Amino acid sequence: NPMDWQANFVFSFNLLTLSQERTIYVGVPVTGQYSIDIYTKNGAINVSNMDNIHTIDASTLNGSIYFNQVKDLTSLDANSANGTISVLGTTVTGKMDVSTSNGSIHIGNDSSASSVYATTSNGTIDVSETIADDYDLVSSNGSVELTAYGLVEDYYITLHTNLGSTYLNGSKTSTRTYGNSSLPKRINMKTSNGDVRLTVANV
Hints:
Blueprint: H1 2-18, E1 34-40, E2 45-50, E3 53-60, E4 65-70, E5 75-80, E6 85-88, E7 95-100, E8 105-108, E9 111-112, E10 115-120, E11 125-127, E12 130-131, E13 134-139, E14 144-149, E15 155-161, E16 166-168, E17 171-173, E18 177-178, E19 185-191, E20 196-201
Parallel strand pairs: 1-3, 2-4, 3-5, 4-6, 5-7, 6-8, 7-10, 8-11, 9-12, 10-13, 11-14, 13-19, 14-20, 15-19, 16-20
Antiparallel strand pairs: 15-18, 16-17
């Protein structure tokens, strides 16, 4: 019962807070589909080994966020004001939206989503072993790297850096756009300071 689960979560949180514990463990029943909102002001968030979660919205003001082997989500939202974000082996049928003000972002290990949006104000972005039709990867200060699947001709591609170099399939390039803007698959990679590296692997 979702209401029973929610009550247990609040009760456990209060108990652990009173006993000065710093780690909170929450188990979700194996049956049913659940939407989870997680918020902390000072601490990391770790969600792993779940396959009956509908949506996840995770936010922390000071800490890292980790997702590992979370399957069949319809959407994933993660935001940190100060910390890294890691998404591994996680599948989303809709949008994966992750952002941090100060930290790096890594997405990979057979993750997937219809679209991947990743942004950081200060840190690198590395996306590999991840399937999506739409990638939007933006850093204000740090390199941006993506390995996408298919052919270059499958995507409308935008590569841009103010201070650094852009690379396509290992070769340095000054071309900022590739393909037709009407293509349904898109790759947008930008940074103000750092290299932009795109590899499109036909596997």
